[in-house]
Amino acid sequence: MKRNVSLEEISDGKLYGFNDMVKADCGDCRGCSACCHGMGQSVILDPFDVFRLLQGMETMQEYEIPDFNSLMTVVELNVADGIILPNLKMSGNDESCVFLNEEGRCKIHAHRPGICRIFPLGRYYTEGSFKYFLQIHECRNDKRTKVKVKKWIDTPDVKSYETFINDWHYFLKEMEELVRSSVSDEKIREVNMDILNQFYVRLYQADQDFYEQFYERLGMMKKKYKK
After folding, report:
1. What is d(CA 102, CA 33) in angstroms, rounded to the nearest whole number?
2. pTM of the model
3. How many degrees, rounded to 5, is the angle at CA 122 between CA 91 and CA 7?
C-alpha cells in the first residue's frame, strides 16, 4: 500500500540493506501488542504470506486442513491501489489482529506476514529495486536495540525472498497501470480475478519450492497481459 508522505517525514533519513544494522529490535515485544491493533486494512498479504499462513493454520487445532475458503475467516478482500488483495482482519472493539491470543501474543508468529516481520521497518521502492527504512513514529517501544536487517526479517533464503518481494511489487504496479488505463469494467474485473485466482485461490504445494511455483504463475500472467 502506497503512502503519500515524504520519506523525511516518517523515517530517520537512512536507507538500509539486509546486511545493515538498524535500531528495530523490540526485545520480543514483551508486554506490548500495540502494532497488532487498529491496523485497519494495512496488513496486505502477498502470495508468500498466504503460503506461510496456511502452513501455520494447519498446525492449529481450531482450523481444519486450510484452503483459501478457510483462510477467508481470518482475512478480507479490499482494494489497494486499484487491485483487490487480501489483508488480515482486525476484530472486536479494540480492532485487534485475529491471530492475537488472550495474552496479546501472536499465535502464528513463526508464520506471520512479511509486513509484521519487518515492522517497524518499511520498504522504499525506487529504480526497479527497494531498500528498507526505519519508521520513527510507529513503534511505541523507545528502547529498541540494533539488529541486522536480515536477522530481523527472519526468513530463510533472504535473497530469493527479496527478489520475490521486488518482482511482486513491480508486477502489481504494472497491473495497477493496466487497471487505471482501462475503460472497460469487464477488463478490470478480469485482471483482478486473475490475480486472486492465480496467486491466492490456487493453492501452492507445500512439498514444492514456493518460488518456482510463483514464477511459473507470474510468467503466465505476464504473457497474458503483455503490453
Report:
1. 11
2. 0.91
3. 120
Please state, in angstroms and rounded to a whole number, the distance separating the CA atoms of residues 172 and 195: 9
For 152, the enclosing helix (H) or strand (E) is helix 149-153
Grid coordinates standing for 127? 529504480
Q: Report the C-alpha gap between 14 and 133 in whole angstroms.
A: 6
Cα distance between the two ends of the chain: 24
Q: What is the pLDDT along the chain (227 residues), one digit of tens a residue?
A: 566 667 877 888 899 999 999 999 988 887 788 888 988 999 999 999 999 988 888 777 666 656 777 788 889 999 998 999 999 999 888 899 999 988 888 988 999 999 999 999 999 999 999 999 999 888 888 788 999 999 999 999 999 999 999 999 999 999 999 999 988 999 999 999 999 999 999 989 888 999 999 999 999 999 999 85
Q: How far is the C-alpha of 10 from the C-alpha of 29, rounded, in Å?
A: 21
- Whether the link from the prior residue into 86 is cis, omega within 30° of 0, is no
